[in-house]
Amino acid sequence: MSTPSTILVADDDRGIRTVLAQALGRAGYEVRTTGNASTLWRWVSEGEGDLVITDVVMPDESGLDLLPRIKKIRPEMRIIVMSAQNTLLTAVKATQRGAFEYLPKPFDIKELVSVVNRALTTPRSQPSEDGAAEDEEKLPLIGRSAAMQEIYRTLARLMGTDLSVMITGESGTGKELVARALHNYGKRRNGSFVAINMAAIPRELIESELFGHEKGAFTGATQRASGRFEQAEGGTLFLDEIGDMPPEAQTRLLRVLQEGEYTTVGGRTPIRANVRIVAATHRDLTQLIRQGLFREDLFYRLNVVPIRLPPLRERTEDIPELVRHFLSQAGAEGLPPKAIDSQAMDRLKRHRWPGNVRELENLVRRLGALYSQEVIGVDVIEAELAGGAPIADAVASVEGEGLSASVERHLREYFSSHGDNLPPPGIYDRVLREVERPLISLALEVTRGNQIKAAHILGVNRNTLRKKIRDLDLSVARGGLK
């Protein structure tokens, strides 16, 4: 029989050491445990152990600082890092310094045993010499919820690669922040990060924006212009709202991904493309594929590593930390210091946040700028979150019923009409669409088709309104709707 592998465990929590010793012992491993880094270092330097499991925070030394020392004398040894700090920076540093895997606390014991088995059986590759600069810059992503932990782990694994990434999530969830984190902590961090929003550029100009154009390529092209691919050379190109890319540009982008080169608009000489592609969308690309609006082959080229950003309502436990972060930012920008009391924080956690983290950030900035009290109470939060009350009052004055009550009444009738059965799926999007269409139609009607004025009274930017008009298939002409 072969000798069982020995696992060296370092954690200053006696309970965790006991649990790990019992679980790994039942799995057939020899286990040695310690509560400090110095003992772990002595064991490793004496050649003991086949695998290390270490906490980050220990009484005598950080487990992260121990990692490069272990890898220097025993580069073949696999190291699993545990931490209750649970930030993106912790996950990235653990990976960059040679950890096989990073596990946030609390962790699932079955998952840990599975990771140990994988660490001891997966063939070893040559260690990378590419390391990020040691800095304690501000975290690009905030939150310690389970949903965010999984994103941190995924990002940490991607930092040393050039794989294409597709980020999906509702508006305001932080898709560009994730793309920037991939760049800033990755192997291309010394290159440029270039972002382009497909929904914000006229369709006929997207190819020129992406690939550049030669002088005389089209009317108005009076000189050569570089495109975003050329500007991002050696760095990262972030293609935001990729679902809005027109078919012609999709074909050219697919050719770049397949062949690694492109030509400018009006050009003949192929140019090698040396960029990492990160794409993002809030739309369902599989549905666009079925509708013939997005190329399936391009989707698979971009969707090598999918990352879904959860909406804020799915990670409400992160709201207090996000609020503190935004209050701190506001204070650093010169706004008066503020705090949120516990009842107000609870109210924030119960809100649905249709605008996600961006909506929360805007609210916190308003609190800092508009209110004199140092501690914000629940009454202020209620007033801010009830920003649509005047609309409801206008409805009530006609029908004696608030907008919310009216919607609820109609929905109750709709659900009741199905008896013991459930309504068909997709009601959320259908209800939003039924409200959105007349709202935008009436805004365009009262502004006589002036999209700038309509966007102003709706409180959205003009590009968002143009996109909504296109999505809802509204025909607009000067003077009103067609």
UniProtKB/TrEMBL annotation:
Domain Sigma-54 factor interaction as annotated: residue spans: 141-369
Q: Which PROSITE patterns match?
A: RESPONSE_REGULATORY (PS50110), SIGMA54_INTERACT_1 (PS00675), SIGMA54_INTERACT_2 (PS00676), SIGMA54_INTERACT_3 (PS00688), SIGMA54_INTERACT_4 (PS50045)
| Compartment annotation | Cytoplasm
Q: Which GO terms describe its cellular component?
A: cytoplasm
Q: Which residues carry this modification: 4-aspartylphosphate?
A: D55
Per its record, what are the GO molecular function terms? ATP binding; phosphorelay response regulator activity; sequence-specific DNA binding
Job of this protein? Member of the two-component regulatory system NtrB/NtrC, which controls expression of the nitrogen-regulated (ntr) genes in response to nitrogen limitation. Phosphorylated NtrC binds directly to DNA and stimulates the formation of open promoter-sigma54-RNA polymerase complexes.
Q: What is this protein called?
A: DNA-binding transcriptional regulator NtrC
Origin organism is: Magnetospirillum moscoviense
